[in-house]
Specification:
150 residues; 2 domains; RxLR effector protein; two-stranded antiparallel ribbon; two-stranded antiparallel sheet; mainly alpha; elongated; single chain
């Protein structure tokens, strides 16, 4: 810790213990704090730059969190659109940007992909926010609608 404090004096960058977490490489260590900095515990995650990082199953935790956020956003927005075209535009605007953000770091499992498709189908065709499978087939032309220039 003395080396880190010395680096802080030289560079002007200082550790903020309230915003920092210490992660031991030796997983046997079970300390709760180290020099007033909280220590990551086993099976725990902490949000960092939009992702959950830590010792838990990061893929599962991040996708569960992302799906919950998408559902919360879409529930808020589901009263506005009246037509299928409007719901497609709304889904593309609200939900699609966050999916590649998570997929960039954590590849989606087949179960996650199925859940995302079910959310999309139910929102577009039934105007409901559920992830149970529906019976409607979806045409690819409804997923992305290029805007006509002119």
């Amino acid at each position: 810790m003395a080396l880190i404090r010395k680096f802080g004096r030289v560079s002007g960058l200082h550790i903020q213990p309230t915003k920092s977490w210490f992660r031991f490489l030796n997983t046997v260590v079970s300390a709760l704090e180290w020099h007033d900095i909280p220590v990551f515990q086993q099976r725990r995650t902490q949000k960092y730059l939009g992702y959950e990082v830590g010792f838990a199953d990061q893929n599962r935790v991040n996708w569960a969190n992302r799906i919950r956020i998408i559902q919360r956003r879409m529930i808020t927005a589901e009263t506005a659109p009246k037509t299928v075209h409007d719901r497609v535009d709304l889904f593309n605007t609200v939900a699609l940007p966050s999916i590649p953000f998570t997929a960039k770091m954590f590849g989606p499992s087949p179960e996650v992909l199925r859940q995302l498709v079910n959310i999309q189908k139910n929102f577009i065709w039934k105007k409901r926010m559920e992830d149970d499978p529906g019976r409607h087939k979806m045409s690819p032309k409804w997923i992305f609608q290029p805007q006509e220039a002119g």
